[in-house]
Amino acid sequence: MADMRAFRDAVTGWAAGGPGGPARDLAGQLGVRAAVLLEGPSDLAAVEALAARRGRDLDAEGVCVVPMGGAMSVGRYADLLGPPGLGLRLVGLCDENEKRFYDRALQRVRDPAPHPHVFVCRRDLEDELIRALGAAGVEEIIQAENDLRAWQTFLHQPAQLGRPRQQQLRRFLGTKKGRKIRYGRLLVEALDPEQVPAPLDDLLARL
């Protein structure tokens, strides 16, 4: 049975130079109406976690959340999924330094939305989540996940000495493959409703 994961895989293959037919067929079968363009899989984990907390089934709503493998791919995905391609409504979440790529891509495909919905994190989503929870809150999660020893070892590295704790935490999440993805979900699940960072909160509200 076709599902949104199959559609996302078909889109990824299409963006890599494969045929577009499978994605077109699945879009029709699944009633896909919108695509959320994300930089990577840790952002996907966070968006899916927040949607689940709010009792939303994005797949059933016809929303495909797409990790593109980097902001510089947004032009290709916008061409395929936006008005020139499948005609889906495009929504994006990106880092402040990458916003120019999103703006340029959406302007080029002439997204019909009067104000293209791109929500911007100050540095990146991990930074937003760490600030929302506070360093102590993130360290509690690290301990609960049995990563305390790795965290303490990391803190003793010369490059980390004297750095602000928030920067240390942000760097720590990126030091092991898969850690950013796992903590993207865990940090969102630990947030109180009023702590949800504005870019993530606004993104879900617009879907």
Description:
- This protein has helices at 4-15, 21-30, 41-53, 74-81, 99-108, 125-133, 135-144, 148-155, 165-173, 179-190, 198-205; strands spanning 34-38, 63-67, 89-95, 117-121.
- With 207 residues, the chain is an alpha/beta fold.
- A 4-stranded parallel β-sheet has the order 2-1-3-4, sandwiched between helices.
- Helix 3 runs parallel beside helix 10 (179-190) and helix 4 (74-81) packs parallel to helix 5.
- The radius of gyration is 18 Å and the shape is elongated.
- The model has no long low-confidence stretch (mean pLDDT 93).
- 53% of the residues lie in helices and 11% in strands.
- Helix 5 links the parallel strand 3 (89-95) and strand 4 (117-121).
- The chain contains 11 helices and 4 strands, in the order H-H-E-H-E-H-E-H-E-H-H-H-H-H-H.
What attributes does this structure have?
207 residues; alpha/beta; 4-stranded parallel sheet; 53% helix; 11% strand
Q: Could you give a quick summary of the protein structure above?
A:
The chain is an alpha/beta fold. The protein has eleven helices and four strands; from the N terminus they run ααβαβαβαβαααααα. It is elongated.
Coarse morphology:
elongated
Report the C-alpha radius of gyration, rounded: 18 Å
Q: What share of the residues does DSSP label as strand, in percent?
A: 5-15%
Instruction: Give the integer mean of the pLDDT values.
Output: 93
Largest sheet data: 4 strands, parallel
Structural class: alpha/beta
Please report the total strand number as a whole number.
Answer: 4
Measure the end-to-end span.
25 Å
Helix content: 40-55%
